[in-house]
Design a protein that fits this description.
ISPD_synthase_CS, binds cytidine-5'-triphosphate, binds magnesium ion, Spore Coat Polysaccharide Biosynthesis Protein SpsA, Chain A, transferase, 2-C-methyl-D-erythritol 4-phosphate cytidylyltransferase, Nucleotide-diphossugar_trans
Length: 228
C-alpha cells in the first residue's frame, strides 16, 4: 500500500551528549539519518518522505541528501520546539491526495519493509497501527524513591515507530491536540485522545531509537551482525 512518511529529525539529541546532533553521528561510516532515509527510499510503496529538520542543520542536511543521492522523493520542512510540533509542521506538507501517512523517528534506523507493510495493512482497516514489543523489565510506579506499586506487565507494551494512520485520522488528532494544548510523546497518544482506535502490530527489539551513547554501540553491533 502506498504511503507518505513524515520523519521528525529536528531535535538536538541532548541525551546523546555529543557536540554534533545525533542525526549526523556515524554508524559504520554512514550518518544515522541516512540509514533511516535509505530504508524508506528503498521501499517502492513510499511515495514521499517529508523530513522535518532544524534550521541550524539545514546546510548539513542538504549536503547529506546530495552526497547520498536522496533528493528525488525527499522534501525538507522546518521543525518546531517539541517533536509533536515538528510532526504537525510535517503533516501540513503532506500531499492532499495522500491516503496513508506514516510518522517515523529519524533516530530509528532499523525499520523494515515487512513491518511497514503490516502497519499500513492494519491501519487501512482500523484507522491507526503502531509497532509494539513486550516489556522486558518489571515496571513499577514510584514517588520520590519509594515504590508505590508494581504494574501488570502482561498489559504493558513498549511502543515504537513507524506509526501508520489514515490521513484524516492523524490530521484530526493533531488538530485536536493543538486546540486542547495537549502534548504527547507519540502520534498514537493524540489519536487515543480523540477516541479513535489504534491497533498494535509486532514491533522488533532491533527497532531501537538511538537515544543515549549505549544505543550507538548496540546499533553498530546490529549492523555488523547483518554484514556477516
Ligand atoms: N525531533 C524533532 N523535533 C523536535 C524534537 C525531536 O523533529 N523538536 C525528532 C528527533 O530529531 C528524533 C525524533 O524526533 O528523530 C525522536 O526524538 P528524540 O529521540 O527525543 O530526539 P531528540 O529530541 O533530538 O533527543 P533528546 O530528547 O535527547 O534531546
Ligand atoms: Mg527529544
Amino acid at each position: 500500500m502506498k504511503y507518505t512518511v513524515v520523519i521528525p529529525a529536528a531535535g538536538y539529541g541532548k541525551r546523546m551528549k555529543t557536540k554534533q546532533s545525533k542525526q549526523f553521528l556515524l554508524l559504520r561510516r554512514k550518518p544515522l539519518i541516512v540509514w533511516t532515509l535509505e530504508c524508506f527510499m528503498a521501499d517502492p510503496n513510499c511515495e514521499e518522505l517529508i523530513v522535518v529538520i532544524n534550521r541550524d542543520h539545514e546546510q548539513d542536511m542538504k549536503q547529506l541528501l546530495a552526497q547520498y543521492e536522496l533528493q528525488s522523493r525527499v522534501r525538507l520542512v522546518h521543525g518546531g520546539k517539541e517533536r509533536q510540533h515538528s510532526v504537525a509542521l510535517g503533516l501540513k506538507a503532506v500531499h492532499s491526495e495522500a491516503t496513508m501517512v506514516l510518522v517515523h523517528d529519524g533516530a530509528r534506523p532499523f525499520v523494515t519493509h515487512a513491518m511497514i507493510s503490516e502497519l499500513t495493512a492494519k491501519a487501512s482497516k482500523v484507522g491507526g497501527a503502531v509497532p509494539a514489543v513486550p516489556l522486558k523489565d518489571t515496571v513499577k510506579r514510584v514517588t520520590g524513591d519509594v515504590i508505590q506499586e508494581t504494574l501488570d506487565r502482561s498489559q504493558l507494551w513498549a511502543i515504537q515507530t513507524p506509526q501508520a494512520f489514515l490521513k484524516p485520522v492523524i490530521e484530526e488528532a493533531h488538530r485536536y491536540a493543538e486546540e486542547a494544548g495537549f502534548l504527547g510523546t507519540d502520534e498514537a497518544s493524540l489519536v487515543e485522545k480523540i477516541g479513535k482506535s489504534v491497533s498494535i502490530v509486532a514491533g522488533s527489539y532491533r527497532n531501537i531509537k538511538i537515544t543515549t551513547p549505549e544505543d550507538l554501540v548496540l546499533a553498530e553491533a546490529f549492523i555488523e551482525g547483518e554484514e556477516q
